[in-house]
Design brief:
Largest sheet: 7 strands, mixed
Number of strands: 16
Structural class: alpha+beta
Radius of gyration: 23 Å
Number of helices: 14
Oligomer: single chain
Shape: globular
Strand content: 15-25%
Helix content: 25-40%
Amino acid sequence: MERLSGLDASFLYLETPAQLMHVCGVIVLDPSTIPGGYSFAGMQAAIDARVRDVPAFTRKLRRVPLGLDHPVWVRDRQFDIERHVHRLALPAPGGYRELMDLTGHLAGLPLDRSRPLWEMWVIEGYDGRGRDEQDHVVIFSKMHHATVDGISGANLISHLCSLEPDAEPLKLGDAGTFGHHPSHLELLGRGVVANATKPLLAARLLAPSVSLVTRTVERALSGTAMAAPLTAPRTSFNGTITGHRAIGLADLDLDDIKAVKRATGTTVNDVVLAVAGGALRGYLEDRDELPEDSLLATVPISVRESSRRSSGANKVSALFTTLGTDEEDPLVRLTEMAERNRNAKEHADAISADALQDWAEFAAPRTFGLAVRAYAGLRLAERHPVVHNLVISNVPGPPVPLYFNGALIESLTPLGPVFHGAGVNITVMSNNGNVHVGVIACRESMPDVDDLVQRFPAELAALREAVSAHGGATPIDGARARAEERQA
C-alpha cells in the first residue's frame, strides 16, 4: 500500500468528463527489427512479461472511507494484460491523417479507475508518412497523471525499452514495492490522523509562504520576477473545453536547435520556446486573432533532484513565461526570451522544491472535485482574466537509438492534458538526434491543430536564417551585459 501524495491525488480531483488528466504518448515503431518478426500476440506477451512485477503498471486505486484522506495504491490481484493492451488497425490509406484522427479519438476516452490507470493501443498499418514501403506499428499509450510526470513517465517506459533489439530492458527507474492490502479500519484510522495533523502542517508552511510573497514583490519591483499569471490575453483556445481531442505531430532536427543555441549563447529550452512563440504568432495572425500582448505559457519544471520527498510520482513545479508572440523578428524574440527565462528560472529556483507538493496536501477529495465541476458548469474560465494561455513542456529524451520490445523507435512524442481556460498543450521531446513536437488540444478550441504544429519546422528555419544573416555577436550579448550590470 502507498498513499498518493496531495499533488498526485489532485490530478484525480481535477478530472471531469471534459478535463481528462491522463498523459498520452505516440511511439512510432519499425517492426522489421524485432527478432523473429512482429505479431500482436508477441508484443502483448512481451509487455505483460515486463510490467507484471512493476507496481506503477499493476496497482490500482482504493479510496479512503468518507473521503477523509487521499486514496492509496494497492496491488490489482486480478491484473489482466488484455484489459490494458489492445489491437487496432488504421483505416485505408493508413496515413498521418488517419493516425491523428484515431489517436485524437482515443485521447478523449477516460481511463477505467477500477483498474491500473494505463492503456496501450497497438495500431497496425501505419505508412510512416510514406518514408518507405514498410508498414509501421504505432503504440498509443495513456497513463494517468496521478501515476506519472515527465521524468517518471520516461523511467516507466524504460521497462519496455532496450539498447539492442534482443537486449534486456533498461529498467532505469526503481520498480518499487507493492506493500500490503490495508483493511477498511486501517484506512479510516489513517484518514483521521492525516486530518488531525493538517493544522500543524499549515502552520509550518505559513512563514515560508509569507517570505516567498515578500521576495516575489521585491523581484517584481526590480524587474526580475517571472511573468505573472492572470495577465494573459484571451484567445480562441482560452475558454471552457469539451472532451473531444485533436492531435498534431511534427519533427525538428536537434542539430539545428543546437546550432542556434551555440550561435546565440542561449539554451535549448530558450530556442524551443522561441520557435513555439513564432508558430503561435503565425497561427493567430492568419486568423486575425493575434493579441497585442504576448501569450503566457506555463512551463512545468522537474524538482526531482532537489525534492526532499521520497514518495509521490509527480515531483514538479512550474514557471510562467511570455512567448514573444508580440515580436515579429525571430532573433529579437529569442533574445528577449533568453533574458526572461533566466529571470524566471532564478525566481523558480528561489521557491522551495516541495512548495507545490506541500500545499497540495490540503486538496480535499470531495470539495475539490465539486469545485472543478462547478467551475466547468458555470463556464467561469470565460469570465475571469486568463490565467495562462497554454502549457509547454520540454522533456529530455534518449540520445541513442532505443528499441521497444525489439522494434526500433522512430519517434517518441508525449502529450500532456489540457485544462479549462487553456485548451492547448505543447510537448517537445528529444530522441536520438531528433526533436518531436506534439500538440494536443480541445477540438472545439483549436479545430486545425495541424496548422499550428506544422509551423514549427518553418519557424526553426526562419530563426536559423536570422542568426546566419546577423553574423558575429548577436543581440544576446547585449542582453547578457545588461543582466550583469543589474546584478553588479
